[in-house]
Request: fold
Amino acid sequence: MTTPVLSVRDLTVSFPSEAGRVDAVRGVSFDLDEGRTLGIVGESGSGKSVTSLAVMGLLDDNARVGGSVMFEGQELLGKTDAAMSKIRGNGIAMIFQDPLTSLTPVFSVGDQIVEALTIHDPKISRRAARDRAVELLRLVGIPRPAERMRSFPHEFSGGMRQRVVIAIAMANNPRLIIADEPTTALDVTIQAQILDLVATAQRETGAAVMMITHDMGVVAHTADDVIVMYAGRPIEQAPVDELFADTRMPYSIGLLGAIPRVDKAEKQPLVPIKGSPPLLVDLPDACPFAARCPIAVDACRTSEPELVAVGGRPDHRAACLRAEEIRAGRIDGGPVYPVPPVPTSTLETVPRELRRPTLEVENLTKSFPLTKGSFRKRKIGEVHAVKGVSFDVREGETMAIVGESGSGKTTTLLQIMDFARQDAGDIRIVGTSVADIKGGRAERDLRRDVQIVFQDPVGSLDPRMTVFDVIAEPLRTVGLAAAEVGPRVDELMDLVGLDPAHSDRFPAAFSGGQRQRIGIARALATNPKLVVLDEPVSALDVSVQAGVINLLDELKVRLGLSYLFVAHDLSVVRHIADRVAVMYLGSFVEHGDVDAVFDDPQHPYTRALLSAIPVPDPVTERGREHIVLTGDLPSPTDTITGCAFVSRCPLYQTLDEPDRARCEQTVPTLTGRTDDHVNACHFR
Amino acid sequence: MVVAVTNLTYLLAWAYLDPRSNYVGRRPPLSETQITNLLEPRNLDDATPLLERWWTWFSGILFRWDWGVSPTGQSVNEQVAYRMWISAELMLGATILLTAIGIALGVYSASRQYRLGDRIAQGTSIITMNIPIVVAGLGLVLLAIAFNNAVGSTVFYVTGASSPDVSGFFPTLVDTAQHIALPTAALILVGYAQYHFLQRSLLLDTIKSDYVRMARAKGLTKQQAIRKHALRTSLIPVTTQVAFSIPGIFTGAVLTESIFAWKGMGQYFIETISKNDINGVVAVAAFGAVMTAVGAILADIAVVALDPRVRVS
Reply:
């Protein structure tokens, strides 16, 4: 038997805080062997990142760390900063979450890679270090590596920067790579590239990998073993197949049940976990999950369950008193989480063509001028953020626009919210064209019908206004009598599942999910016909996200709303949307019914996008073929004569010369076998 | 810009200052005509129309680089040319030293945040920052005199920029050092703290940033990561502030120059105003404007040197 690369025993981390001692990590133990990948999953505040920083010795000085961390037979805890720095970057390397901030902005990427080499090998010649750095850049797939050595981080896109970070991590052939949410800040197609790259790095160096993530799909895609963390403790630990197939701990079950699946068409509601994680100050001796657990018994509240082997398997351990009763997410013959009823709408029986359109967009175009010169701005060109986009949203329907960052989806929303007049097109809201709006009064009337919910639940609520004022503001703006405002606010709070008694509190007193509910209540205040949702759940943890998605579904049915939904998370879109449009560089490349597009994607970009998403099921995930797109989104300032996707298109690579010429020269139009499902590819 | 400011100052100076009043109350009293006869050739007579005075003055600068004369007939050009170097001698050294000390202390106390060293450094800086320059200057003078008495020879001179009868390179150097030590120390004492606090807070922001953690993850020790990765980014705003303090360097040390009897630009500024020396006041203002412009340019150059993000491709 070989000694594991990393062996952690009973790791504890606590920080002093004004409220008392915060126990961020409370007893984590695991072994990690060479070439294996350990996935650590959990929501924000579960202690997963703190665990990784404790292993690296990068916690703040005020953190108190206990237990033992053995790396290749040496105890790491208690080593001085100088001694640890010999191991960091050499034996253990780390990939951080946000590539935009993890490279020093004032040094060239070449210098930063060379530094990682010279710091551990002072004898290495400048030339040798440079050559190795170029080789590393080539290995992580940076084109023209020798030239890019001199580039500064701000000249690179997010995905490229993460490649540089990985190159630095690989520089000294580490035995252990810790990846802390390496793809969370990136788009799906880039995520697929980066996950491939981490796998390559692991193959090249034979290292063990600690993959920290909140995304069950990423775990299923990469991990061999999984630890699920909750409130600073591992609550289930098992090999990946075992964990997904025979989940024992109610929290893990909830986490899996709360994720929408991109590969399944079923329209059953997601199963949210009630409540929110506990504060890690002065925890009582009880199961920390008991308050949110649907099957908690009295014994759960008297002592905290140990992590013990379940089902007669030594490698599957769970911290739940009832773990033996739970088999594959079911207990006593029924699911652990009661499935909420499916809301059905009378509108769904009406064929789509007969429903009234709430929003019609025709040939929407938005371009920004590119200017040069510091005194007199000369116009040197235009950036086409949105090019000729047309769609309609009908009553009781959810239309989703998906695309990567920079594809123009948010600009489309803002144009609609601005009631921007179009030169060669039109926006009609419930039959009223924005071109006919005369004066502020008509505009205000129309604005009642369209409301927006923003992405960031923290930034979109004024912290100095009480929740009551936040929700009442649109009511007062539309001129509701003062006496009616109070009851209406209570009604709205109730509608979105918040206690109306809490309306005198400030937004800071609410959790992220609750704040997003406040944002939804504000949007619904004026009884709009159409609600525009700009990534409403992307800032939320999965267990909370499911609750908000269910609320949106329910509201749509109860109030007959239409949604225009913008998201980059295709799983969420598949779950919530009826119609979907895929956007690439300002234009729709595919548009149709959500099941048609997801089950039978036509455009090569849609196919790549769909295949890039890891599915939270290790068995399916291994069988899936991932189309990994090369390169980044082209800059919108480039002039593109033909199809915008040519530079990354896998189909284009397989075409012969005349067909390629067609892609390069002719802009494809949206066509399809049926009028309902169209795509912009010459060959599909 | 500099031209506009200078001309505006010229007109403003004429609105507030009156060279004629210098001669009021003279014994024996001078008649109006006598005063006019004194002032007229110096282009300081308010009986001449303002436009004509202005043109004489402005064309003098434009065509002969002649900034005029004071009411007593001294050339402004000579005064500024002489005093500029006195000020530079005093202030450049002091500024460089106080910036260096401030930044070094900032780095020291930021990397030991809330520890004893940080607390002591911060406490000291709060005290020194609040000492008025007059108190600091006179306090140092007392200390220096006590020191001189104790060792029995004049190690520190407490007045003037140089002794009149020194020649040769090394004697001059030693003499200058003896004169410059005290005013420089006074300026550093009251001035370093602002850079200490600025550098400390900026560095603390960057120490917590992801790229410093990344640098440590690469294998740099905390101190190495701070010195190499955090310091350079946090220096950018400090540099800008130092560069913009350059005009203050030349004209701002009024009190220090007065206490230590240095005939520098600051002292000249006060002198010209009190003596209704319009041409002198305007020259000081113009000098300040030029220095501000130089400071702005230096700030830009420094930022470009430190920060690749602003380099224009």
About this structure: The two ends of chain A are 55 Å apart (CA to CA). The longest strand of chain A covers residues 378-394.
